[in-house]
Every structure is written in structure tokens, then in C-alpha cells.
Amino acid sequence: ESDNLIGGKVKISLADMDLPSWEHELKLDLDVIETLLASMNKITPDDDAKLQHLKALVLEKIAHPINPGNKKILIFTAFADTADYLYANLAPELLTSQHLHTAKVTGKGTPKSTLAKGYDFQELLTLFSPRAKEKAVVMPNEPAEVDLLIGTDCISEGQNLQDCDYVINYDIHWNPVRIIQRFGRV
Question: What is the pTM of this model?
């Protein structure tokens, strides 16, 4: 008889379940989910007002640097998926239109950049902040540089990125200490 019971503290007999009704409700739920997915797939990055505003901020900073010649921008987001999205929608355009390199560093997966070869976490941060991280000493034969760095809070502590003079919080972390740590990088 125990084979016909499921559940933890509350045991339910499989014989008491209305399987046709359950199947019907699951099919209705699936229809709703498929409709939602179809609606979501119609939305493109061009429809994303927040992304378009971010692009405008980035291009404005590059065109009118706060400090002469400094085009470096650090974008923080709380989520690796958001960092991936921002990288996919900013990096190619910046490379094509501005000839500037972008890097993405998250706690998930391999760091990525628009540079020809692959670099690790510390190397990309050094290419983003060559003076503060002493690129001439640690990477003396490396001509490349990164001007836009997209990262999660994995770089919000203990990293000296003071070559940068512009920080954008794409989203705000729930912990105010994280926000303070983000600003502390520059």
C-alpha cells in the first residue's frame, strides 16, 4: 500500500488524485507560458529603453570625457546574465563605431573581451586600468587596452581600477555596502 502514497508529512493516495483534471490544468498552464514566451520574443534590444539610455550615456562620455582623453567606463550589474546581455549589446557597436575594446568579468564562466586573444580575470583588469595596476611591469609587451569594463560585484572589492573616472550602476544591489564598494574601485 505504501507504493500508492506520496508526500512527506501529509500523505496523499494516488488513487484519490483526479488525473484528467490535473492534466487539463497543466495544459492550460503550458498555453499561458507559451503565449508569454511568444510575447517576450517580440521584444528586441531596440525596444529596451534602459539599454538605449545606457548606450547614450556611454557614447556621451566617450565623446566628452570628464578628464581629457579618458574614455574608461565601468558598468556594474548584480547578475552575470545581465552582464552577458550588456556585453552582447554594447561591445560590438563600440568596437565598430568607436574602435574601443570592451571586457566582461563575472564570477561565472571565462572572462570575455573584444580583444583578439583571450585574457584571464586579472589581465583584463590590468588592461582596463594600466596605470593603477602597473601594466608596464606585469604585462610589458602588451599593447592592448580596454575602455569599457562590464562586471558583477566579483570586482567590487579589492581591485584598484583608478584609471577609470566613470561608474554606472546598471542595477542597484540590495546591500548598500556593495554600492559603496563599487564606488571604491575608482
Answer: 0.79
